[in-house]
């Protein structure tokens, strides 16, 4: 603030200034905390004894879980928090019982990496960050129920995260019932013989390890040896969603490789159909729904088995089973488990030299190629590379419809993450297969008749021919012919044949893979799992929860050369031998035994998969959530068939990761009867981003934005010209502005108004500190309309306002109310500004009724000044729970509107008429107007076009 400005501000002793704002805001924040103003009553106890409160509709409003960063908040962070606070305040004032609170998602890599660098325990730095962020948020006047706040690192919280993991571990998905069921029910089926074991033996004949292996194929949480994303530079494995498109870690930008490790997984694929279908009932942005649909990736086709002599079958999934007669070779993903079983000791006689890659044996060729493929990301492997790479395994598979032998290759363009990790290659009708076949001189057969003049000999083609419209050709054996059929009919016929011959069947496939749930880190939830001497996993009994995170001397995982894929993780927890090796009585009748604890930890997503439930009942130590409380706040109701949070606001970047995982956990808990809501979040709203200009010098290095000068449209830093681009706001870009700075210079209410007024909430917008003063001036004019700046006395009078003021007031009430409900806060502020300007220009003291309505309109947006003015107007109860003003329809509708009357397209008259006038009456008035009569000058009328109430167009004959 300039010195001139400061002097002007101190001229009047009771002017609304930054210093006054700071005093007002601190006092009311203390008052709200002391009075529990924002505490939302629960249905058990609180509401039971208060019929009036119990009759109110509820509204559960949530922000996405913040991570307490050491850098603190910049002004871009609170955008969503302020928006939900404004909406929650309006909902309280319109008669709702509102639950709005905020906690902290506090496990994860940043705190651990900071601990590695500084030696500070992750808990110490995390709790300090939480304290700092809490203070910053409090200063904004956010109306959170603070009794319900928590951090995921609290053992009272992660006890229930571990408990949920055990519910998932002890469950299986019953495809016939289409829901999860306790694993004990599956065991009972095996014991009774109603469900046969995989090899047909009695359940009692299986060893403990064999039973564990069988159940592991069903459990919704299971450990398996599978290809994973291994980041040596981080010392941990990553979920697919945590790997960038260029094959690097989202956190730290390290290379990521494919490796086979034993890891915990969540069988989210069991819920693929339900995750897809239930999107239809959610009030989410269509773009987010589309991203989830694409990630789940449902496709219909057929499973086909290609036998390999002495090694079982290669099973493929294809959506073009009609082209099966054209499959001339097979390709496996390099990581496919069948590869080791099918490769012979030597190359078969007559093997094409191109197929071997110059290697002496199939084993040598496969090993070399696998190492090459492991260094590529999935995106790189799927890219349309000019040169196709691969190597022959030395094995042949039999095409089940033609009986022909098809050579089996491995190639990096086939991924284990989709389908079965194996394809039947139909090179004549697939561009990638065509390119591969050309590179390796493989045969091609046309089985879909080209619609152009290329003919049916693929050896003469420049590229593959793919069509869903053409007829099938060259597709017959002694038992079946597809020739002459269209694609749809051919698919149906061949699928029926495959099933009848036991070599395939129609099936549905999903792009979605099971969720990799292990991390080789310290700062995460310990798994409530121990292993016996035979390596069998046992769940801890609930009485042993929480399993608390132990102290270790070294937090860092063992990291490796980022480029060295041939490494294995070593977890920090494994270094605490006293914690790892324990003697326990698990209450299973086997007495005390020696066990080894799981030394991986859960991913940082675990705590945010269910936190909405903890907000409901945060101090419940007996159960996950009281069923009556969960039913009240999140249960299914009209318009919300699957239940869930009424409004969830956060960034669009969480479209797949967090949202998909949370939906999965909700569905499991719902199936098991723990909650009534099958979806966690009914309505989702994605706020935009507050951006800022980034200034860079000639070296491309960011310079402090606050020190850049603008001269004649160019920008200079310390005399040197710099470039300017609009981008993210952040400490590293030297363009961050903290909310503390703006609060100190203008007050929190000004910051709230500015962020809400910048533009539509769902659109990104640039920050401009110079523009903040506009909202500051609005608050000063509001204050001045109610309080005398010289005496500090309230200036309102107990008289009725004039009609013009009543119309301005009620139009504002109507418009602001609609905008608040629709989260159009920028236009709501514009309407408040228009009303305040009208009152300022009208002059004289405000009528008390007008002043009070004005304060109530402002209350959700600028709660501190509204609370202060409300108290000065003589009220003893908080403005927070007052009724929002209701517009009088008589004053909302304009008394008259101006109708333009045209003759031959030229304006001849203007009529002041009722906005509800009928077409016939308006036409009569227009034709009777003297100016119109003169313009017609006795001419006949060919046509009269009436657009009531704004326009009449008369066309003479």
Protein architecture, described:
- With 957 residues, the chain is of the alpha+beta class.
- The chain has five domains: 1-35 and 739-893, Isoleucyl-tRNA Synthetase, Domain 1 (Orthogonal Bundle); 163-294 and 515-597, no CATH class; 298-510, Valyl/Leucyl/Isoleucyl-tRNA synthetase, editing domain (Isoleucyl-tRNA Synthetase, domain 2, Alpha-Beta Complex); 690-727, no CATH class; 894-956, Ubiquitin-like (UB roll).
- Helices cover 33% and strands 17% of the residues.
- The chain is built from 31 helices and 31 strands.
- The strands form eight sheets. Strands 22, 23, 24, 25, 26 and 27 form a six-stranded mixed β-sheet that branches. Strands 2-1-20-21 form a four-stranded parallel β-sheet, sandwiched between helices.
- Helix 4 (79-93) links the parallel strand 1 (58-63) and strand 2 (97-100).
- Helix 24 packs across helix 26.
- It is globular, with a radius of gyration of 35 Å.
- It starts with a helix and ends with a strand.
């Amino acid at each position: 603030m300039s010195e001139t400005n400061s002097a002007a501000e101190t001229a009047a002793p009771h002017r609304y200034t930054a210093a006054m704002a700071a005093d007002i805001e601190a006092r009311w924040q203390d008052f709200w905390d002391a009075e529990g103003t924002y505490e939302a009553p629960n249905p058990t106890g609180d509401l039971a004894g208060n019929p009036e409160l119990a009759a109110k509709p509820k509204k559960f409003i949530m922000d996405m879980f913040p991570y307490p960063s050491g850098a603190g908040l910049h002004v871009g962070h609170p955008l969503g928090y302020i928006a939900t606070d404004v909406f929650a305040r309006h909902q309280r004032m319109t008669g709702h019982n509102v639950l709005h609170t905020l906690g902290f998602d506090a496990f994860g890599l940043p705190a651990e990496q900071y601990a590695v660098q500084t030696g500070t325990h992750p808990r110490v730095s995390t709790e300090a960050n939480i304290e700092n962020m809490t203070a910053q948020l409090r200063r904004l006047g956010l109306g959170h129920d603070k009794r319900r706040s928590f951090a995921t690192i609290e053992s009272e919280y992660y006890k229930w995260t571990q408990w949920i993991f055990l519910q998932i571990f002890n469950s299986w998905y019953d495809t016939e019932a289409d829901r999860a069921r306790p694993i004990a029910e599956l065991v009972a089926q095996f014991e009774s013989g109603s469900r046969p074991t995989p090899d047909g033996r009695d359940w009692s004949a299986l060893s403990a390890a064999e039973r564990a292996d069988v159940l592991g194929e069903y459990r919704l949480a299971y450990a398996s040896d599978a290809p994973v994303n291994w980041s040596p530079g981080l010392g941990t494995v990553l979920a697919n969603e945590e790997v960038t498109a260029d094959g690097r870690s989202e956190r730290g930008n390290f290379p990521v490789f494919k490796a086979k490790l034993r890891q915990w997984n969540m069988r989210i694929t069991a819920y693929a159909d339900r995750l897809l279908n239930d999107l239809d009932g959610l009030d989410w942005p269509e773009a987010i729904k589309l991203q989830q649909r694409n990630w789940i990736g449902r496709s219909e086709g057929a499973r086909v088995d290609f036998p390999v002599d002495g090694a079982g079958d290669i099973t493929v999934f294809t959506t073009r089973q009609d082209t099966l007669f054209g499959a001339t070779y097979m390709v496996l993903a390099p990581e496919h488990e069948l590869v080791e079983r099918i490769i012979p000791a030597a190359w078969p006689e007559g093997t094409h030299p191109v197929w071997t890659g110059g290697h002496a044996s199939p084993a040598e060729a496969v090993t070399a190629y696998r190492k090459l493929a492991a260094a590529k990301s999935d995106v790189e492997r799927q890219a349309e590379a000019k040169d196709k790479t691969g190597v022959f395994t030395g094995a042949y598979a039999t095409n089940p419809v033609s009986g022909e032998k098809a050579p089996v290759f491995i190639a990096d363009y086939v991924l284990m993450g989709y389908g079965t990790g194996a394809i039947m290659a139909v090179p004549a009708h697939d561009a990638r297969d065509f390119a591969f076949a050309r590179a390796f001189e493989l045969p091609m057969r046309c089985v879909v008749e080209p619609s152009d003049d290329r003919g049916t000999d693929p050896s003469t083609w420049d590229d593959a021919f793919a069509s869903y419209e053409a007829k099938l050709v060259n597709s017959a054996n002694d038992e079946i012919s597809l020739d002459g059929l269209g694609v749809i009919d051919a698919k149906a016929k061949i699928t029926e044949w495959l099933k009848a011959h036991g070599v395939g069947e129609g099936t549905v496939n999903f792009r979605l893979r099971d969720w990799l749930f292990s991390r080789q880190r310290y700062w995460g939830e310990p798994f409530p799992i121990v292993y016996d001497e035979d390596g069998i996993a046992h769940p801890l009994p609930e009485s042993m929860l929480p399993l608390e995170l132990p102290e270790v001397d070294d937090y860092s995982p063992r990291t490796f050369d980022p480029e060295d894929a041939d490494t294995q993780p070593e977890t920090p927890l494994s270094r605490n031998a006293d914690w790892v090796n324990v003697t326990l009585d698990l209450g299973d009748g086997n007495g005390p035994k020696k066990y080894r604890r799981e030394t991986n930890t859960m991913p940082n997503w675990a705590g945010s998969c269910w936190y909405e439930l903890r907000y409901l009942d945060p101090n419940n130590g007996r159960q996950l959530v009281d069923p009556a409380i969960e039913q009240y706040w999140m249960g299914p109701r009209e318009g919300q068939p699957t239940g869930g949070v009424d409004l969830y606001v956060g960034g669009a970047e969480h479209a797949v990761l967090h949202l998909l995982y949370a939906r999965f956990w909700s569905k499991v808990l719902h199936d098991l009867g723990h909650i009534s809501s099958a979806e966690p979040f009914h309505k989702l709203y994605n706020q935009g981003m507050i951006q800022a200009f980034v200034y860079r010098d000639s070296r491309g290095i960011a310079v402090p934005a606050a020190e850049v000068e603008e001269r004649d449209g160019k920008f200079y830093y310390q005399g040197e010209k710099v470039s300017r681009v609009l981008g993210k706001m952040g400490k590293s870009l030297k363009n961050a502005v903290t909310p503390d700075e703006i609060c100190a210079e203008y007050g929190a209410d000004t910051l709230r108004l500015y962020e809400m007024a910048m533009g539509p909430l769902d659109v990104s917008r640039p920050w401009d500190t110079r523009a903040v003063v506009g909202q500051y001036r609005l608050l000063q004019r509001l204050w001045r309309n109610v309080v005398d700046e010289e005496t500090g006395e309230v200036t309102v009078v107990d008289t009725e306002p004039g009609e013009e003021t009543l119309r301005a007031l009620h139009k504002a009430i109507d418009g602001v109310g609609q905008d608040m409900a629709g989260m159009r806060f920028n236009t709501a502020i514009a309407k408040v500004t228009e009303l305040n300007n009208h009152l300022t220009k009208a002059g004289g003291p405000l009528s008390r009724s007008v002043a009070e309505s004005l304060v109530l309109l402002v209350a959700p947006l600028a709660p501190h000044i509204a609370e202060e003015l409300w108290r000065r107007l003589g009220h003893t109860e908080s403005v927070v729970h007052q009724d929002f003003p209701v517009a009088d329809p008589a004053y909302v509708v304009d008394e008259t509107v101006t109708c333009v009357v045209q003759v031959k397209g030229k304006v001849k008259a203007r009529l002041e008429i009722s906005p509800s006038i009928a077409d016939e009456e308006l036409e009569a008035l227009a034709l009777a107007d003297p100016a119109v009569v003169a313009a017609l000058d006795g001419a006949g009328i060919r046509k009269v076009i009436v657009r009531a109430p704004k326009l009449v167009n008369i066309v003479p004959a």
